[in-house]
From TrEMBL:
The chain crosses the membrane at residues 58-81. One of its GO terms (biological process) is intracellular monoatomic cation homeostasis. One of its GO terms (cellular component) is mitochondrial inner membrane. It is a single-pass membrane protein. This is LETM1 protein. It holds the Pfam family LETM1_RBD. Keywords: Membrane, Mitochondrion, Mitochondrion inner membrane, Transmembrane, Transmembrane helix. The keyword Lyase does not apply. It comes from the Eukaryota.
């Protein structure tokens, strides 16, 4: 069924609350990682990726906050998200956006695998022709 306007607003507020909460948790974890780095410890690849993602999210948060703080500017947010799809911090992405990104990545990997298979088959044919 269709949601009422009140329910849509409540859902959107919950989405923003959860996004800010997750960003706060990521920021605390990233601060601990930076502390460890400053004291000479080495980060794993996973920790380094998480630290980079969190830093990128914090830099993306600045233009996003303009939309949240300025009255009625949130109505322009969908337009800007169409123009700049990577503008939102990763903690604010919806499930449908995450699935869409995964599908694009999977399609790209499948295309690359197909290309590599064709290349290997062609090389095998050449080698066979050269030896035969």
């Amino acid at each position: 069924g269709r949601k009422s306007l009140r329910q849509k607003i409540v859902d959107e507020l919950k989405h923003y609350y959860n996004g800010f909460h997750l960003l706060w948790i990521d920021t605390k974890v990233a601060a601990r990682m930076v502390w460890r780095l400053l004291h000479g410890q080495v980060l794993t690849r996973r920790e380094r990726r998480r630290l980079l993602r969190t830093c990128a999210d914090l830099f993306r948060l600045v233009p996003f906050l303009v939309f949240v703080i300025v009255p009625f500017m949130e109505f322009l947010l969908p337009v800007f998200l169409k123009l700049f799809p990577e503008m939102l911090p990763s903690t604010f992405e919806t499930e449908s956006k995450k699935e869409e990104k995964q599908k694009k990545k999977l399609n790209a990997k499948l295309e690359l695998a197909k290309f590599l298979q064709e290349t290997i088959a062609e090389m095998a044919k050449r080698n066979k022709a050269d030896t035969g």
